[in-house]
Design goal:
The chain is an alpha/beta fold. The chain has ten helices and eight strands. An eight-stranded parallel beta sheet has the order 2-1-3-8-7-4-5-6, sandwiched between helices.
Length: 315
């Protein structure tokens, strides 16, 4: 079987042609796909700077640079998986609650077709409906959450659903296997000393940014693989986990963050984990003057593709 291939730079200049993720073919249905990229052009859940509604489009534009073969890990995902770009979910930009329902419905279609949803955000609110869709199919999932923030607020400005609450809600709704949850990269200023205690009290492992400073995260990822075991795992990657020196194009910046090298170590370290869904959130193109934040996002999504179980099983 011949799988979908990205349009090559010798067939059409990289700055031209259709703007799909990695210049893959578009698809209107996930039937027959192994993995599906889908955009959630949303920023109405963001608490500070907006602009993530433009994230999916810009990640796709910057993904034009990506070639199919991973020179470091020797993996060629498109030789082993049928992948396409499903376009964007038509959210209701005037209503966050309705948008959350629309996102769950859109991602459920992908999951129910047997494909792994790979979501381009969009603000981090989208991970709650994504987890609802994935957990409905697979049961409670392990979670690898990379972020400057814990996103476990009970409420934001009185609202239960916003980009700072998804993991509190996901826990309450029983979507998470709480012994298999890790949050990596947390840092910054808080409201009180106990801000990161709630996740620990639920059994989550919390690894602050300070614990990651000046070192390789490859040893940590061996521990993560052991923690995750063979059960289903969802990966959610907030681009603000990275230091603003690398990824300034986002809404809620915190200094002292991860490096792009550590980001690669985290994702490559998930090889062998049973990933059933992933997202890359919080890219805000209006604040991304050199386009580097969206480019990093595109690369990290590609690296996620390279560690999906079907690719790992074949290589
Ligand atoms: Mn977040
Ligand atoms: Mn964040």
């Amino acid at each position: 079987m011949k799988f979908n291939q990205p349009l090559g730079g010798n067939e059409m200049p990289r700055f031209a042609g259709p703007v799909t993720m990695m210049r893959l073919p578009s698809a209107t249905s996930a039937e027959g796909l192994d993995a599906a990229f889908v955009g959630v052009p949303m920023d109405i859940g963001a608490s500070h700077r907006s602009g993530t509604r433009f994230g999916p489009r810009q990640i796709r534009a910057e993904s034009a640079m990506l070639r199919p073969y991973n020179m470091a890990t020797k993996v060629s995902p498109f030789d082993h998986m049928h992948v396409a770009d499903m376009g964007d979910i038509a959210i209701n930009t005037f209503n966050l609650e309705k948008s959350v329902g629309l996102i769950e419905a859109g991602i459920s279609k992908i999951v129910n077709a047997g494909a792994v949803p790979m979501t381009l955000g969009g603000d981090h609110t989208l991970t709650l409906p994504a987890l609802r869709a994935v957990a409905k199919h697979h049961g409670p999932v392990g979670l690898v959450h990379v972020d400057a923030h814990a996103d476990i607020n009970d409420h934001m400005f009185g609202e239960a659903i916003a980009h700072g609450t998804p993991f509190r809600r996901a826990f309450e709704e029983g979507l998470l296997d709480s012994e298999r949850v890790i949050q990596i990269g947390l840092r910054g200023t808080g409201y009180a000393d106990d801000d990161f205690d709630w996740p620990r009290e639920q059994g989550f492992r919390v690894v602050t940014a300070e614990e990651c400073w000046h070192k390789s995260l490859t040893p940590l990822m061996a521990e993560v693989r052991a923690q995750m075991g063979s059960g289903p795992v969802y990966l959610t990657y907030d681009i603000d986990s990275l230091d603003p020196a690398f990824a300034p194009g986002t809404g809620t910046l915190e200094i002292g963050g991860l490096t792009t090298i550590q980001a690669l170590e985290i994702i490559r370290g998930l090889r062998g984990v049973n990933l059933v869904g992933a997202d890359l959130v919080e890219v805000s193109p209006p604040y991304d003057m050199a386009g580097a934040t969206a480019l990093i996002g595109a690369n990290l999504l590609y690296e996620m593709l390279c560690v999906l179980p079907k690719v790992v099983a074949a290589t």
